[in-house]
């Protein structure tokens, strides 16, 4: 048995009304099979059809429980792409061993700390780009950073700080071209290792940070281990990634 196809139709003008009136006797109650509905009378739409097309006015629901409790810094809107410029850091096994030791100790102060899934050094804030701005934005970045050379970075940059400030200045110029927020004033360049929901600075400051620094200092070859070779700058916009090699 095949289902009846859905059809759309409309009627307008006196000619259609006259034809409909000729098919239905004035004052007749009900309709026999095969007759058309009365003018202006609409057939009910089945519930199964009504629920096939949800309202487009309702935006997507951002469930923070799916992201470990994290909340977006700006609401999701169709056509808006969250964008971030950074230097990626590929962690070696020895680095992850050190991170496990640090995290295990830090969790005695803040149990809800969670290890980062990926590591990077930020060169911009997270900003919003319209889709048609992405390629011009990336091209502007490439033009700005084309003259920069590779360098080494650690957990917190203690040397070469001026070099990174120059790099951020070029990224900021691109942000200004697109009327976007520039990077922080007097930034501290670093690679984030862990995160948690809520403000845990009071628990982390003082003895905790001192003890964590002691673990780093005593870790074998930590000075060389915590160096990273920055070969490229990346721009992530939504689910798109763009790489800009450094000389």
Automatic annotation (TrEMBL):
<keyword id="KW-0378">Hydrolase</keyword>
<feature type="region of interest" description="Disordered">
    <location>
        <begin position="1"/>
        <end position="67"/>
    </location>
</feature>
<dbReference type="GO" id="GO:0005634">
    <property type="term" value="C:nucleus"/>
</dbReference>
<keyword id="KW-0456">Lyase</keyword>
<comment type="subunit">
    <text>Interacts with PLRG1, CDC5L and PRPF19.</text>
</comment>
<keyword id="KW-0540">Nuclease</keyword>
<feature type="active site" description="Proton donor/acceptor">
    <location>
        <position position="120"/>
    </location>
</feature>
<feature type="compositionally biased region" description="Basic and acidic residues">
    <location>
        <begin position="20"/>
        <end position="32"/>
    </location>
</feature>
<dbReference type="InterPro" id="IPR027521">
    <property type="entry name" value="Usb1"/>
</dbReference>
<dbReference type="Pfam" id="PF09749">
    <property type="entry name" value="HVSL"/>
</dbReference>
<keyword id="KW-0539">Nucleus</keyword>
<dbReference type="GO" id="GO:0034477">
    <property type="term" value="P:U6 snRNA 3'-end processing"/>
</dbReference>
<comment type="function">
    <text>3'-5' RNA exonuclease that trims the 3' end of oligo(U) and oligo(A) tracts of the pre-U6 small nuclear RNA (snRNA) molecule, leading to the formation of a mature U6 snRNA 3' end-terminated with a 2',3'-cyclic phosphate. Participates in the U6 snRNA 3' end processing that prevents U6 snRNA degradation. In addition also removes uridines from the 3' end of U6atac snRNA and possibly the vault RNA VTRNA1-1.</text>
</comment>
<comment type="function">
    <text>Phosphodiesterase responsible for the U6 snRNA 3' end processing. Acts as an exoribonuclease (RNase) responsible for trimming the poly(U) tract of the last nucleotides in the pre-U6 snRNA molecule, leading to the formation of mature U6 snRNA 3' end-terminated with a 2',3'-cyclic phosphate.</text>
</comment>
<dbReference type="GO" id="GO:1990838">
    <property type="term" value="F:poly(U)-specific exoribonuclease activity, producing 3' uridine cyclic phosphate ends"/>
</dbReference>
<protein>
    <recommendedName>
        <fullName>U6 snRNA phosphodiesterase</fullName>
        <ecNumber>3.1.4.-</ecNumber>
    </recommendedName>
</protein>
<feature type="active site" description="Proton donor/acceptor">
    <location>
        <position position="190"/>
    </location>
</feature>
<comment type="similarity">
    <text>Belongs to the 2H phosphoesterase superfamily. USB1 family.</text>
</comment>
<dbReference type="GO" id="GO:0016829">
    <property type="term" value="F:lyase activity"/>
</dbReference>
